[in-house]
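Q: Here's a chain of 356 amino acids. Please give me its 3D structure as tokens.
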Amino acid sequence: MADRPLPRAAFITKALVQSAAITLLAALPNSTTSHARTAADATFTNPLLTSGPDPWVFQYRGVYYYTHTMRDRITLWRTRDITDLAHAERKVVWTPPEVGKNAHLIWAPELHRLNGKWYIYYSATESGFKDDAHRGVFVLENASKDPLAGEWIDRGRVNTKRAGIDGTVFKHRGGLYFAYSPYVGAVSGLALAKLANPWTIKGEETLIAEPDKEWENQGGRRILEGPEFLAGPKGQIFLTYSAGACWSDNYSLGLLSASAGADLLAKGSWTKRPQPVLSSANGIFATGHNGFFRSPDGREQWIVYHANPAANMGCTLKRSPFLSRVNWTANGDPDIARPTAPSVRQPKPSGTHGIR
């Protein structure tokens, strides 16, 4: 049977259907492009920023708060994707007074949530001085629900036994513990104490570690600094620290551990790992000063630390924040992945993909 010409109405209908189909196909993403975009969204590269010494991440109700040393102010970043700090919301939340005990060299800020309030611990130097004897750890308090809002109240210097830097806190078995790096003669060690409130030590502080390993003597200084707590899967308590001088390419992370149920204020409770747990690798140097956080879904343990993407870069604001995955050994010890070069893409923390 010969084909008959379509009626005019049918011809118009067919044309409209074909046009709609072409429009729909054009709107669909190219499969190759879509796949590449998905892969990029699910991965990241180090470093996260071009500058970020002494990085810190605090995780609260699905949100990550980030900060690092800026020397003359404290800034907070806020994001749901910790690997995308370059596009995160940020705000300067505090600037130091022009003169006073906490006026200069604002280092290593850390944000914590304690007893329903926000606290920032930071190191500072007294105006008119540049020596270690005039450094201390200070505390800011904010009662607002939002740490990027409200008023930050200066609670002053933590009443440590010695001058020092790099204060941090950790809740353990109903108590609040404070660790910092005191100056002990010509060296820097690690000290621990319990707190009566977020800015006041109660009782004695214990010097739990001093630099006694060759790899803790780098750049001409025997230094342990930047202590950070990590709870182990079997009840252990770990304390990472930065070893050597920050201007050395061999600046690295060491590890102390205490068994479950141990008295944390007893020096004998702590065992030092004989070798660094994170050091230079893959063209990345001076790995140090870290913090810990979990992936958005809570399944993975991660570490943030600073490093230099080339040798001989020293101890400057060019140090950048890096991320590495932390796995656990059969004994329940942390196993930190080596730093990755900027060209290497790695999976984002689990649960991050798709979050905006």
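Q: Can you summarize the key feature?
A: The chain has a mean pLDDT of 91.
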